[in-house]
Amino acid sequence: MISFVRFITVLFAVVAVNPIASLETGYFYRPSADEMSGIAGTNATYRRSPCPALNALANHGYLPRGGINVTEDVLHDVLMSVYSLDETSTQILLALVPSMFSLDYLGTHNLVEHDASLVHTDAYFGEDPASVNETMVDDLLGRSIDGKTVGVTEVAAARANRLANCIANNPECTFSASTLKIAYIEASIFILGFGGNVNESVGVDVARAFMSEERIPEEYVVSSTVISFATNPTTHSRIHFDSLTPTTDMVSFANCITAATFAVSAFITSPVEGLDVNLLPEGTYFKPSGRLVSGVVGNTAAFHRSPCPAVNALANHGYLPRNGQNITKAVLGPAVMAVYNLDEASTATLLALVPDTFSLDYLATHNVIEHDASLIHDDEYFGGDPAKVDNKLASDLLERGEASGKLGVTELAAARKARLANSIATNPNVTFGTTQQTLAYTEASILLLGFGAKTNESVSLDVARSFLVDEKIPNGWARASSAITVAEVRATVANIIAATTA
């Protein structure tokens, strides 16, 4: 038995290393302003967002307390269990975020974060988007008519005041139709979700706990019935209507409610189509997800993507059209050269594979560019979306580099060999002729040279994971210092083939 003194010493040492590691789910711990940030791409210990509902979930441990690597599955379950959102409403919100993200992602301006927020300062003024403006909180809650609750009337008045203030003081104020929809959805969740879906109101004390402290208060009672955006869009609409200044030209109350309900219902049907992603500056990361994106050839989804993570990353960052449609060679060529530093000859070789104008799903045409035995996509035979990353395949690839922390020629060769063997064993229609081999080994070469920035024919696991799984250009990544030539690509191809057959 160890001594009591030693036990206490060890115990405090553990707590000092990770003060929140032992906290149970539900226990409230809010990191200090010095420890956390909501700035998109921050490397702070704790990531937070402009959304008090999500921050509260992280502060209570229902989401990862660090606010990092939040998965769609985890978020799905806690939105339904803690706030009693129904399945449809939950899916609407999940469509706004990638399958895995950190909370600071929501701080990206004009993505989910927006001007004229009820409790956050506009991005123009340079404040951390996760920082709560207590003056705004006091203004919102101080509008309570009965001194006990706030509801549609009070929130509508606060909305109107915030927009007027934004227009008057922010020379870059943006409050487009898509921003309006998000703002009123947020206001509705504030009333229905925090208020437990009771009489379209929320108690002042409960509201302050959520909005100011980002804490789920003890007196909070989850709604006894599930909250559905689809069946109650008029809550959002009444906030919108009540925030308008009546004029002699205004049509009837009923018609206003109908029009506002239609606008909100349109957002409920297609939330990300309602977002004007073109407002996002070039370089800002936004990856569409769910039913809003597809790589199936000829699809009608809002966002088109391909089986090529390098090209998808260009679209996700706005170097190509964010919807992945009507891309011209005149746009693709300069983007590939600028971002990945391929030389003119290498770029011309890639451009020869596509029409003058195309959408990203074209690249999924089987045996044109998409091919069997892909490193991170399932074979076409199995009927999946060709742009969807197979997480099991991606994990298998990345695990091969765990010992060294990187992928190199040896790891890529082993992965290529294993994938082909698996396809031959499981896919009766497998095709891996000269064309497919050329594409597969060229892709592997560009993975090492392009993503790895020509660093000894290798790429770090973190960079590889960001490009291959998240289809994201990682923060701090730098392209190769010299242009990648056709000769270099061919040399690395030869090295991978040699290692495969060794």
TrEMBL record:
| Segment forming the signal sequence | 1-22
Gene3D superfamilies on file:
Chloroperoxidase-like
User: What are the entry keywords?
Assistant: Heme, Iron, Metal-binding, Oxidoreductase, Peroxidase, Signal
What this protein is called in its record is: Heme haloperoxidase family profile domain-containing protein
Q: GO terms for molecular function, please?
A: metal ion binding; peroxidase activity
Q: Start and end of every Heme haloperoxidase family profile domain? A: 25-246, 282-491
Which family does the UniProt entry place this protein in?
Belongs to the chloroperoxidase family.
The family database entries (Pfam families) matched by this protein are listed as: Peroxidase_2 (PF01328)
Top-level taxon of the source organism:
Eukaryota
- Species annotation: Phytophthora kernoviae 00238/432
Q: Which InterPro entries match?
A: Chloroperoxidase, Chloroperoxidase-like_sf
Co-factor(s) = heme b
